[in-house]
Amino acid sequence: MINIDEQKAKLLEEKSTLENDLDALGVRDDNGGWSVRPDEGDGTHADPIDNADATEDFEEKIARLNVLEKQYAQVNRALSAIDAGTYGTCEVSGEPIPEARLMANPSSTTTVEHAK
C-alpha cells in the first residue's frame, strides 16, 4: 500500500531540486514560468565561432529549461492530486495507477497506457 505522506515528501523534495535547477538556468517570469538567463557580457564577440558557441549554449539551456519545466509541472500536478485525494488515480481513465509505477515515479498521474 502506498504511503501518501512518503510520496508527498518525495514529491516536495523533487520540487525543491527542480526549482534549484530551474533557478540556476533562468529567472522566474510573471506567469510562474522561467526564462533562460542570458550569459553576462555585452552580447558581442569578435570571433564568429565564439558567437556560434554562445548561441548554441543558449539554445541548449532553453531545451534543458523546457524539460525541467515539464517535470516541475508534473510534480505540481501530483501534489495537487494528493491534496484533492485523487493521487494514484489515472487522470485519463480514472483507473488506479499501479503501485510499482508510483513507487518508481511518484509524479506519475497516468497509467503507462495513457502516458504521453
How would you characterize this protein structure?
- With about 120 residues, this protein is mainly α.
- The chain has a domain at about 5-30 and about 45-85.
- About 55% of the residues lie in helices and about 5% in strands.
- The chain is built from 3 helices and 2 strands.
- α1 packs antiparallel against α2 (about 50-85).
- The mean pLDDT is about 90.
How would you spell out the order of helices and strands?
HEEHH
Largest sheet entry: 2 strands, antiparallel
Structural class of the helices, strands and pairings? mainly alpha
Low-confidence stretches: none
- Number of helical stretches of at least 4 residues: 3
**CA radius of gyration:** 19 Å
Give the mean pLDDT.
Answer: 88
Give the number of DSSP strands: 2
Percentage of residues in helical conformation: 55-70%
Beta content:
5-15%
Strand line-up of the largest beta sheet: 1-2
Shape: elongated
In short:
This protein has 3 helices and 2 strands, in the order αββαα. The protein is mainly alpha-helical.
Topology of helices and strands:
Layout: H1 4-25, E1 26-28, E2 34-36, H2 48-84, H3 99-104
Antiparallel strand pairs: 1-2
Helix pairs in contact: 1-2
Features:
two-stranded antiparallel sheet, mainly alpha, 116 residues, 2 strands, 3 helices
